Amino acid sequence: MTRLLTLFPVFALAIVTTACGQNASDMGFEKYNPTSTLKVPEHITLRAKYPFVDVHNHQWNMGSQDLDKLIKDMDQLNMQVMVNLSGDNGNSLERKVENVKAHYPKRFIVFANIDFDGVGREGWTEKAVAQLAEDVQHGANGLKIFKNLGFSVKDNKGNRVTVDDSRLDPIWDLCGKLGIPVLIHTADPKSFWDPVDEHNERWLEIITHQGRKRSDTDPAPWQTLIDEQHRMFKKHPNTHFIAAHFGWYANDLSTLGKMLDEMPNVYTEFGAVIAELGRQPIAARAFFTKYQDRILFGKDSWVPDEYKTYFRVLETADEYFPYHKKYHAFWAMYGMNLPDDILKKVYYKNALSIIPNIDKSMFPE
Ligand SMILES: [Zn+2]
């Protein structure tokens, strides 16, 4: 009895502290996810208002993939055309294009990739150019450059190949000549270069994704990489470039606007950065209004369920709704409420204007 009496108060205290949230200090940032009590109109948007072209998608095994399942998911989203940026080159690319042609010739566009192994070796540039020309002949309709250019690609002497390396110039010129766009991802969010502390907006992403942290020597300062990319854009004014992920300036739209003003050959897409737009709906709407001919729809990771956030930010005037990845955004989203004529440009018209061989009859006027 004495034993029970002494234990009881401790037990009761424990219950009270839990119910009152006194142990909140034990809860990590990742766990804290309060249910919003705000009551405002909701327009869950599972399907885009217009058929759209997703210019930033990756399907790694398209050569042997059963495309039926993919098409089913695309149809639900109203994705009329998927651009598979992971086309590879040579035989591997040919197999992907053949699978598409045999089953859904109008629903997929395949971009080629450069094999950067051996840059600087005698004849490397000529070989890369010839390979790309062949890939385009075999059905590639664009070129995708991954962030390894700038980050990890080394030449035959072991030096980092910069994004504006002149040994790559003939590749960009060929794309201009052939009329195919280059979608290029350079660097990563600037926060990856910043101290990993309580001030860093990408703190959670860095600590949960080993290997994303960068520094001024690993491999170079953020601004250096971005400047290399912009110099390369300016050096090839007759080539259309699509700067992936809003060129990592989605959180600084006035700078992105200046960049687009300076470089009329550059377009951009918002893959993986919709949360940046969803936290500044007024500035973002103004940006989309001013640069409505330069923005394309891109998503990057193929998770069909996540597209609804994109549609809702673009199409609705909804307020304070959730994003799907806390490590990208611990804040809520707001809709930009874009008018139909701008939505049409972003969803398909701009893609139709710079990516060849998409059947225009699949889209409204
Ligand atoms: Zn990507």
Mean pLDDT: 94
Radius of gyration: 24 Å
In the sheet with the most strands, the strands line up as 4-5-6-7-8
- The poorly predicted ranges are 1-20
Class computed from helices, strands and strand pairing: alpha/beta
Strand content: 5-15%
Which cofactor or ligand species appear? zinc ion
Report the end-to-end length measured between terminal Cα atoms.
84 Å
The helix content is 25-40%
Could you state the order of secondary-structure elements as H and E?
A: HEHEHEHEHHEHHEHEHHEHH
β-strand number: 8
Count of DSSP H/I helices: 13
Largest sheet: 5 strands, parallel
Quick one: overall form? globular
Summarize the structure.
By secondary structure, the protein is α/β, with parallel strands linked by helices.
Note down, in words, how this protein is organized.
This protein has 365 residues and is of the alpha/beta class. 38% of the residues lie in helices and 8% in strands. It contains 13 helices and eight strands. The protein has helices at 2-19, 67-77, 90-103, 124-137, 148-151, 169-178, 203-208, 222-235, 253-262, 274-278, 281-290, 307-315, 340-354, and strands spanning 52-57, 79-84, 108-110, 143-145, 182-184, 241-243, 266-269, 295-296. The chain has a five-stranded parallel sheet with strand order 4-5-6-7-8. A three-stranded parallel sheet has the order 1-2-3. It is globular. The N and C termini lie far apart (84 Å). The structure holds zinc ion. Residues 56, 58, 85, 185, 300 line the site of zinc ion.
